[in-house]
Amino acid sequence: MTQPTPIRREAGPRHAVRWLRIVAPPSHSAPVSARSWCQCGFERTALDRASVLALVDAHAAHPTDCPLLGPEGSKAA
Ligand SMILES: [Zn+2]
To answer: Counting beta carbons within 10 angstroms of the beta carbon of residue 21, is it exposed (0 to 12), middle (13 to 18) or buried (19 or more)?
Structure first.
């Protein structure tokens, strides 16, 4: 029996709301998917392993570009 393994991470309450959700079944043949969402409007989905890795990178790097989390705190969208 294979079950998806959802991993949920939430940013601290001091920051804009962000989610990174990854579904990575242990079975190699099962599809991997992930979704990254941010309160600023940033949203990405990944439907294969390579894209999930890229999405994780994008999610980790997002605060640098995020208008809600950026050092300038600008509202530039
Ligand atoms: Zn953002």
So the answer is: middle
Give the three-state DSSP class for 25. coil
| 65 alpha carbon – ligand 1 mean position (Å) | 7
| For the chain, domain boundaries | 6-65
Task: Give this prediction's pTM.
Answer: 0.64
Q: Ligand 1 mean position to 31 CA, how many Å?
A: 27
Q: What pLDDT, in 10s, does the model give residues 19-74?
A: 999 998 888 788 899 999 999 999 999 999 899 999 999 999 998 888 887 665 44
Separation of CA 8 from chain center:
9
Q: What does the pLDDT look like over 6-26, one tens digit per residue?
A: 666 655 555 578 999 999 888
Question: Are 76 and 47 in contact, with CB atoms under 8 Å apart?
Answer: no
CA-based nearest residue to 56, from 73, 77, 32: 32
